[in-house]
Each structure stands twice: as structure tokens, then as C-alpha cells.
């Protein structure tokens, strides 16, 4: 019998990482398969709790975590605290392996969500402390750390916290983070991916020291859960943005969900990806720092509800390097003329364009035809349509003059699309590459038609929103 090399098996199971059921079914094949799969499953045990929270899966994970506590008296104490709140956990079984040492992701928010089932605060804090000590020790090397809002646990008092967090590559936290947490991260200089959620007040300036201490920041994300029009903490934001100057040669991805307070973007000479969220109700002057900004290495541009003037300026000043553009106009702010100017700037300045997301309007068909003729490397289109969009004209152009490589289509908000439009499009696409299609099937008739086309091979794959 042919036996696959362990490294090849690892690659196969890595590919199946998102399909947990398939991985579970392979656990009992043999010892080698089990060892590899356990490593993958326990790398991020919080993933399912974050994306698909479910009481049963939460309790199953909690049982396994508690089974790692060595002190029998502590185990009984933890069980009793949950029992006092009406949660009856299954009897303790010692784990076959020390699963926790395989963990690379530590989501402190998920731990707090689990312990919230305990109603008594003092009991809850005791259980949290026991779980934290299991994951924060010399044997566990955390590389992904997620810290929730208003997290005030005394992690710095855990003796081996600094060692455990010394090799972090990804950090997600809020800018009002407590000093006790920053103390635990003081040895960390390896962060490459930083996701900060900026508060409108009470920000901790000590986080600036952590940013400056890093050796190679690559991806930076400045988000906010505040209302877009909530005033920024400008003094803090200025210092925060300027702290990135030290990393100007290494930062390749940058996202900002509110206007800049400095000229930091002009320093990021090797930037490859930029994501900005605007609001047409916001003063255009807030984005003035983007005027005449040159980003010659930029390949990916993602903009949401962004002022037209600066949107076009960004596209024109990338010097032809853009390959992916996503323009999300959910507020329907752009006029037909503004939309024309946007499309014109794309086909005039983006000869290497591969993927495009945009919201065309009824009168833009001539500019769309020019786009399809000019951007010959185009592979995928994502259309966010408005009510009243003329699908007849669009599909007519698409089937006649699309570049040879174009085969991926995503139609969002396609409520006005009828079955006749889809039939015309796919019937006239015959003889070209099979289509990858994603749309909203508003009737079962459309769904059945797509399944029929898939069986015939005209659609390679289709998915629904």
C-alpha cells in the first residue's frame, strides 16, 4: 500500500482546514494522521466559537480545556461554579495529548464569552484566571493574540506571560488597552500584523512604545466601531500615525476607517494595498492629504463611499500598477457623470487590472465598453447594482467585447435581474471559458436554470449570496 509522506499529508490537511467535518473524519485513520490533524485543529480552537457560536460546541471545548487543569480540587471547583449557574459539564477525562500546547491563537474575548455563563462575578474571575494560566505559560508559544474591549485582567502577573507573548506576529486590540496588558507584551518585537480599533477618547499613549519597538510591521489596520461622524481623538491619532514612520519601508498593507490627521501615507513608499472608508457627508477637505499622492507600488485599492475627487486622484497617481480595485458605493452618492469619470480614470490608468468591483449606472454603458476593450487582463468583475440598472445593455456588451481571460462574475443587489437576462448572458457566452458566478437567486426558477447550466459545463461553479 502506498503511504503518503508526512509533509504531503500536512499540506493536504492544511487545505481542508476550513472543512472541520472532513478533518474530524480522518482523526481515527492512524496515529500519523491524528497527530497532524490535532496540530491543525488546535492551532485556533476559538475559530468556530467566533464565526459560528453554538452552546454545545462551546461546552465541548470548555470540557477539554478544563481537563488540562492538574489540580483535582481546582477542577471540582470550576465544575461547581458552572453548576451553580445551571451549567452541568460532563465528567472529567484526562486528555490523551496536551492539546493546549499546540495553540497559536489566543482569543481572550472568546475565553471571557465562555466564562460569562457563570453568573457570580467572583467565581467567573477565578475560572478565567485558571484558563488564562493554561494558555499563558512557557510551553505555549502564542503568535496570534486577540484582546477584547475593556479587558482589564492582570495578565502581567502571570510569571511566564512575557515569554509566551514574545513571538507574537498578529495583534488585535483597542487603543484604550490597559498598561497591565502592555507590560505583558513588553518583550514582543515580532509583530507583523497590527489591527487597532481607535477609540474617540481615553486612548492609551503607551501603545505607541509597543508600535515603535517592532522590527518589521507589514500589515496595519486602523479601524473604529464608533459612528463615522464621531470626532476623532486627533492628538492621539497624530502621534499614532507618526509612529508608523519608523516602519515606512516595511509596511505593505494599510487600512484606515476614518480620515488621516497627518501626511503619513506619503511616507509609505512600498505600500502595495490601501483600504480607506469615507462618507460623502464628510468634508472633502478631510482627505486633502491624498491629493497628488504618489503610490507607485500600489497594487490593491479598496475604497468605500469615497469622495470622487480623491478617488480619481489616487487611481491616476498609481502609475499603472493597480491590479485589483474595489469601489463600494453603498450610499449611492455618485452621479452618473461622476461614475463616468471614475470608469474613465480606471481604463486610462490601469492597464494591468485583473479584478474590479464597482457600481455602474444606466448611462455608463459606453464607458463600460471602453473599459472591457482596454483592460485586457481582466479576470473578474463584481457588480453592485442599483434598482433600474439596464442588464440588457450590460450583458450585450459583456458577451460581445469582454477580454478573453474574463470568466469570474459576482452580481450583488441584483434584484432587478430577470431569468431572461441570465439566459441571454450565458447562452451568448457559449464557446468561451466556463463561468464562475455568484448572485442572489430571487426565484427557484433561476436556481434551477443555473444548476442546468452547471451540468452542461457552461457554468464551472455558482454560489448564492
From TrEMBL:
> InterPro entries attached here?
F-box_dom
**Which SUPFAM superfamilies does the UniProt entry name for this protein?**
RNI-like (SSF52047)
The record's listing under Pfam families reads: F-box-like
Q: Which organism is it from?
A: Rhizophagus irregularis
Q: What is this protein called?
A: F-box domain-containing protein
> What region holds the F-box domain?
7-45
Amino acid at each position: 500500500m502506498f503511504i503518503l509522506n508526512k509533509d504531503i499529508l500536512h499540506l493536504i490537511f492544511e487545505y481542508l482546514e476550513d472543512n472541520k467535518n472532513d478533518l474530524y473524519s480522518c482523526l481515527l485513520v492512524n496515529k500519523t494522521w491524528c497527530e497532524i490533524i490535532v496540530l491543525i485543529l488546535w492551532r485556533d480552537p476559538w475559530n468556530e466559537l467566533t464565526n459560528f457560536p453554538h452552546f454545545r460546541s462551546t461546552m465541548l471545548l470548555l470540557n477539554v480545556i478544563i481537563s488540562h487543569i492538574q489540580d483535582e480540587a481546582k477542577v471540582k471547583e470550576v465544575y461547581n461554579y458552572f453548576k451553580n449557574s445551571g451549567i452541568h459539564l460532563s465528567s472529567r477525562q484526562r486528555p490523551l495529548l496536551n492539546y493546549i500546547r499546540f495553540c497559536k491563537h489566543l482569543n481572550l474575548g472568546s475565553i471571557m464569552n465562555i466564562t460569562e455563563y457563570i453568573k457570580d462575578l467572583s467565581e467567573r474571575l477565578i475560572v478565567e484566571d485558571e484558563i488564562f494560566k493554561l494558555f499563558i505559560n512557557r510551553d505555549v508559544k502564542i503568535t496570534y493574540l486577540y484582546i477584547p474591549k475593556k479587558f482589564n485582567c492582570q495578565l502581567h502577573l502571570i510569571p511566564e506571560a512575557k515569554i509566551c507573548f514574545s513571538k507574537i506576529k498578529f495583534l488585535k486590540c483597542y487603543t484604550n488597552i490597559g498598561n497591565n496588558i502592555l507590560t505583558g507584551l513588553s518583550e514582543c518585537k515580532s509583530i507583523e500584523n497590527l489591527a487597532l480599533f481607535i477609540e474617540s477618547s481615553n486612548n492609551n499613549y503607551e501603545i505607541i512604545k509597543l508600535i515603535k519597538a517592532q522590527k518589521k510591521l507589514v500589515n496595519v489596520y486602523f479601524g473604529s466601531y464608533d459612528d463615522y461622524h464621531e470626532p476623532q481623538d486627533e492628538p492621539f491619532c497624530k502621534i499614532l500615525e507618526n509612529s508608523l514612520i519608523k516602519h515606512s519601508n516595511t509596511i505593505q498593507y494599510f487600512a484606515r476607517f476614518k480620515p488621516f490627521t497627518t501626511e503619513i501615507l506619503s511616507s509609505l513608499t512600498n505600500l502595495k494595498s490601501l483600504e480607506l472608508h469615507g462618507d460623502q457627508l464628510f468634508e472633502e477637505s478631510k482627505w486633502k492629504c491624498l491629493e497628488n499622492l504618489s503610490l507607485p507600488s500600489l497594487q490593491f485599492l479598496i475604497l468605500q463611499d469615497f469622495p470622487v475627487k480623491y478617488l480619481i486622484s489616487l487611481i491616476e497617481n498609481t502609475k499603472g500598477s493597480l491590479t485589483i480595485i474595489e469601489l463600494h458605493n453603498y450610499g449611492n452618492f455618485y452621479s452618473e457623470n461622476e461614475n463616468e469619470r471614475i470608469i474613465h480614470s480606471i481604463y486610462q490608468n490601469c492597464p494591468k487590472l485583473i479584478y474590479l468591483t464597482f457600481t455602474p449606472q444606466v448611462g455608463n454603458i459606453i464607458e463600460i465598453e471602453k473599459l472591457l476593450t482596454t483592460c485586457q487582463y481582466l479576470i473578474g468583475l463584481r457588480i453592485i447594482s442599483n434598482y433600474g440598472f439596464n442588464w440588457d445593455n450590460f450583458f450585450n456588451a459583456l458577451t460581445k467585447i469582454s477580454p478573453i481571460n474574463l470568466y469570474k462574475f459576482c452580481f450583488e443587489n441584483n434584484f432587478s435581474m430577470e431569468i431572461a437576462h441570465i439566459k441571454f448572458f450565458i447562452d451568448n457566452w457559449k464557446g468561451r471559458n466556463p463561468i464562475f458566478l455568484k448572485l442572489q437567486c430571487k426565484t427557484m426558477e433561476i436556481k434551477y436554470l443555473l444548476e442546468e447550466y452547471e451540468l452542461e459545463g457552461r457554468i464551472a461553479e455558482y454560489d448564492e449570496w
